[in-house]
Amino acid sequence: MPLPRVAFFTDSFHEVNGVAHTSRNFAAFAQRRGLPFLSIRAGASLPTSTGDFHTLELPRSRAAIALEKDLFFDPLFARHTRTVDRALRRFRPDILHITGPSELGILGAWFAWRHRIPLAASWHTNVHEYAGRRMHWLTRHLPGKYAARVEKSVEHLSLVATTRFYRLARVLFAPNLELCTLLERRTHRPCHLMQRGVDTDLFTPARRSRNMPPIAANPDQNPLFRASNVSFPDRKTLLLGFVGRLSIEKNVALLPRIQASLRASGITSTRFLIVGHGNLEPQLRQQLPDAIFAGVLRGDDLAEAYSNMDLLVFPSHTDTFGNVVLEALASGVPALVTPDGGPRHIVRPETGYVAEDEDFANTIAHLLADPVRHQAMREAARAYALTCSWDAVFDKLYSAYNTILSSDLLS
Q: How many domains does the chain have?
């Protein structure tokens, strides 16, 4: 079959999150391979075309609702309908791919129906779990059993609504088998595994620079903070890293509890390096006064920060995959994750730990007591990451596209 012409409507592209990271790599893959590709996303850049690779960025309005510091939903996004229609008519896609029930996803699903284009949808975010946890601002005023009941009800209703939206697609993609099974059961649509890759040239142990003396001052007070101008703690300090959004659904409230448990056990040789931003940052700064808050880091600065960590502590229960876990492993950094969600499918006994919240501190203490095993885990983490690549991920995606289009030709 000829290469399918793909119109890709993504929830996020320029933001700092897993959807945006995957979307940027998908567009880069298509451009590198010379594939016919139209990327439609929110943004302010002018349309571009290189060969048969095209981008269309559409600005959000002032009515856009802030969901996080860099995440928005624009209820007036449909004003771009004519612009999108013209771009699609020029490009003539064989398949239209959306990444979720955002304003971009809704617009993409509508155009797929209008022009009778096969629709593919990938599940990147457990929206239902986020909705349940985001209700905590209200349910915290209720008695415990009622609070849990309300949060579970919101989570259930959000799952019902989201999976109904995904039924519009002909084929689904999800980052782990557990989610694929859930989606197939609720939508009666085939679901293919779409995992994530990692740039092992960018994220590498070779960037580690922990021979420097301990930090003398708080570099996080400097608004120009970058990993490249920080003196990381010396090797006697176990640098615990967290990378991600500082919000309730990432379970970051566990980080101060971990430090308190370690201190109560007499362990003072640990320190947190926190990369990211979010609405819980002020609270974390107050509870972790000796932590390094790096803010949002990208590229070389992010890679250097990872490589100087000794352990990635990622307590999220809601992540569908966990790009940051794979980036840490590529940097030679073992990871500690929860038994819920996608990260547990990445971490193996030789590359990290899977533990319940209450066992995180004890796990870190055991790691401190066994430097030989820690070194072996660092080497195994890097070796595993070298087997993962974005090209392999997207080659499988295009194979699934061809399966859909082949079935259309035969029907």
A: 2
Instruction: Give the DSSP letter of residue 249.
Output: G
Which residue range(s) make up the domain with 218? Answer: 205-385
On whether both 180 and 265 belong to a single domain, the answer is: no
List the one residue out of 408, 338, 410, 409 whose CA is nearest residue 170: 408
Question: Within a 10 A sphere around the Cβ of 384, how many other Cβ atoms?
Answer: 18
Query: Could you tell me which residues come within 8 angstroms of residue 272 by beta carbon, excluding any fewer than 6 positions away?
Result: 239, 240, 241, 242, 255, 259, 288, 290, 291, 292, 313
Q: Examine residue 63 and state whether it is found in any structural domain, yes or no.
A: yes
**How many Å apart are CA 191 and CA 171, to the nearest integer?**
6
Q: Give the Cα separation of 206 and 382 in Å (integer).
A: 11
- Count CA atoms closer than 13 A to 81's CA, side-chain side: 11
Q: What is the DSSP letter of 4?
A: P
Task: Give the pLDDT means over successive 10-residue stretches in the chain (411 positions).
Answer: 90 88 94 97 94 96 81 91 97 96 94 96 70 55 62 76 92 89 93 90 90 38 45 74 92 96 94 93 95 92 94 91 92 95 88 96 93 94 91 91 76 50
Residue 140 and residue 35: Cα distance in Å, rounded? 50
What is the secondary structure of 349-367 as a DSSP string?
TTTEEE--GGGHHHHHHHH
The secondary structure of the chain in percent helix, strand, coil, rounded to multiples of 5, reads 45, 15, 35
How far lies 383's CA from each of 128, 195, 356, 377, in Å? 35, 18, 26, 10
Residues 402 and 356 in one domain: no
Beta-bridge partners for 311: 240
CATH number, domain with residue 359: 3.40.50.2000
Q: Is the pTM of this model over 0.85?
A: no
Closest CA to 129 of 173, 178, 187: 178
